[in-house]
Amino acid sequence: MTPTPITEAFDAVEVIAAKRDKHELTDAQIDWVVDAYTRDVVANEQMSALAMAILLNGMNRREIARWTAAMIASGERMDFSSLSWPTADKHSTGGVGDKITLPLAPLVAACGVAVPQLSGRGLGHTGGTLDKLESIPGWNAALSNEQMLHQLEDIGAVICAAGSGLAPADKKLYALRDVTATVEAIPLIASSIMSKKIAEGTGSLVLDVKVGTGAFMKNLADARELAETMVALGTDAGVKTVALLTDMSTPLGLKAGNALEVAESVEVLAGGGPADVVELTLALAREMLAAAGKTDIDPAGVLASGKAMDVWKRMITAQGGDPDAALPVSKETHTVNAPASGTLVRLDAMGVGVAAWRLGAGRSRPGEAVQAAAGVVLHAKPGDSVVEGQPLLTLHTDTPVRFARSLAALEGAFEVGDRLAGAGSVVLDRVIG
Amino acid sequence: MTPTPITEAFDAVEVIAAKRDKHELTDAQIDWVVDAYTRDVVANEQMSALAMAILLNGMNRREIARWTAAMIASGERMDFSSLSWPTADKHSTGGVGDKITLPLAPLVAACGVAVPQLSGRGLGHTGGTLDKLESIPGWNAALSNEQMLHQLEDIGAVICAAGSGLAPADKKLYALRDVTATVEAIPLIASSIMSKKIAEGTGSLVLDVKVGTGAFMKNLADARELAETMVALGTDAGVKTVALLTDMSTPLGLKAGNALEVAESVEVLAGGGPADVVELTLALAREMLAAAGKTDIDPAGVLASGKAMDVWKRMITAQGGDPDAALPVSKETHTVNAPASGTLVRLDAMGVGVAAWRLGAGRSRPGEAVQAAAGVVLHAKPGDSVVEGQPLLTLHTDTPVRFARSLAALEGAFEVGDRLAGAGSVVLDRVIG
Fold first, then answer.
1. Count of the separate structural domains present in chain B
2. Whole-structure pTM over 0.90, yes or no?
3. Which of A223, B99, B271, B318 is deepest in the core (most CB within 10 A)?
4. What CA–CA distances, in Å, run from B273 to A363, B205, B262, B276?
């Protein structure tokens, strides 16, 4: 380990020490440390110490905005202004069973607003949108910028892998935070998300900030702070930004897994699907249309008309997938039955998320393969009546050795009682700029 | 960056997260993380995040004791029980002009207690004992354990480089802390010092904990906390340990540098030298003798007798040095004169330390060469009367280009006024187990 070369504008130790001692970082310090980290002049062990100091001592709004700008400046920026469509993007902070992007992107496109959805792969208990779509035979996540723009103009919706050119500082920092217990810092989460979204060049952005046991943000106050921080960052950067705070105490819909969630998304596009998935898809579609200035169209009518399903099929086909092909089915299943009769009063999102992950739906380390058919199917949701012995959950995997650890994750994760439990609305609050 | 292999007892992220979230680390977590770091299973970027979390959230006495024990267990332990002498060691937390080890080790040996002084090289504004002795022509810091034990039995005093086998976890962690702004954490400072001293196998230990502008600990409360932590660690490990809190607001003695400090140490051994250096040498000698159970001898009498000088010459000669050789003299000097007549009311230790460092007495990065003759000579100490235009400080270097930055470090570092300023005692307080 060598100190910072004296030809640099700052010394890494002095920048770390400033945040360690609860000082505000100056604009020049932030610009330098993000740039020097991208250039490998600030070492990983220095950035992780700084990230921990930021996590524990915080950053104010000015520091977060500058940090975000520095991460955007570390790479290329995209530009959708040549499109004939208005554009709106959506980002979810991650939850269990959160397949909303799949029906939402074609629905919003069918309403006349283009959706450029640059997505990632999953790590940990929350699944990745690309992993889900890759369970469709032939579907390809990797598009060039030109292919992406062409598909966006032609179809109005594209879901593909984010190129390595957008905010490379964020890419490097995110991998570091993941192994150094510095993920859970609001300034770092907000700047990570918003640097990519602003660099991507969307005209408007709707944020789905998850709250509850299955989310990063366990309580409403933290989620609101994160939402307000991101909305301010977007607004200041000229992107019309709004956030919904939505419930993640229980999984979204009835299916968590890759092919399982594609199947449920197709149900929604066909006019069916679980009520909470439909509710959240429509709520986010209305926000995206409003943010893009398109307030004359009701997405519920468009969904019912089948036009969203048409866009879905064109979008999947354009990326090499066969939307009518049968989805993979797991080799083994294991069913958990209700231990008593009564009302399902709780079904914990984190328990289900970890169970699905351990069944093979997610990965423990970057680059690991996931199982297309693995996951959890719910047969009841909180508020539903259940009868002792009826199926409550079905676990799917190709590798039955995984059942034991998956079942361990579900211990204490559900509760059948005699209390009344309302299903409630999935949308808890709304944050605007 | 890859996560911790699943064959390990813990995941690094979970240990970091525990301290991040202000939990106590368990004994098993501490044993694992220190061992796994030594084995390169816990990566530098993970340990630096943990170090920052420890710095900001602290460790309790049990955690610090366990951390120290784990660092001791990472390497070999030495054993002085075969010696015919009782042993006592001394450690200073580092200050400007702190050459006390040089006269102290031969003095205590001349009183009948052997002093095994495993020392380091300097980094930053506080000098290293080995750097100072290496200004003596021919002197060699590297001894094998056998050579060291032989010299200790034969002469009673040895000052040499610590072998790489003692507390390798600390060696690795110290280098990491140095570049990640995580040096200034009492639990990490205490465990670093005490792991080496306990592994070294001394029977008793006297700690010189510096307080003031030129020390790590800027105020008495922090210094006392560090001293109490280290005394408890030593006592619990069966090493009779005592600490003196001593003043480091102004340099010790009149000389700061390598050869300059050797010369001043020889003055003390010859019965002269500055009052504060003599006072602190005798105070530490009395503590070491008492800790080793030797209370019948007055070190002041032994110093006056010339016996300590005899041991010094034998000790230097045994390690290849010529105690009668002329010491290196700098090629250039620059004198700073008193700006007014009056009393020197302040002469800042940090200013003088940084000035000496920039003149070439210290190094900016590990492995850099130091100048034997570089440093600062003081012509007055706080409390002394000075006359306008008289020499106040003389700067010594072989490379005159260094004068400008050295003088910049002295700006505002001294003050001549008409206030009365007592010299005061250098020993501020005493902490026992």
1. 3
2. no
3. B99
4. 69, 25, 11, 9
